[in-house]
Write a structure and sequence with these properties.
mainly alpha; 2 helices; 77% helix; elongated
């Protein structure tokens, strides 16, 4: 399936937004880990969200790679 220029642009923009959120979550997790008390449930949710973002970014980026002819 060939993507239009508009679709490529939309996917690229979406990937950038997700990367920013992923980076922000990473910083928040690091900051939380430095505190004396860490809510394990909150930490688990944040890490799960971070993994979800990573997977979504990977899927979107793979959509941008053109198919190789067989």
């Amino acid at each position: 399936m060939r993507l239009s220029e508009q679709e490529i642009k939309e996917i690229t923009e979406r990937v950038e937004v997700l990367r920013i959120e992923h980076r922000d979550l990473d910083a928040a997790i690091s900051s939380l880990q430095e505190q004396a008390y860490v809510d394990p449930m909150q930490m688990r949710r944040m890490k799960k969200r971070k993994l979800y973002l990573k997977d979504t970014i990977h899927k979107l980026e793979s959509m941008l790679i053109p198919d190789m002819p067989a």
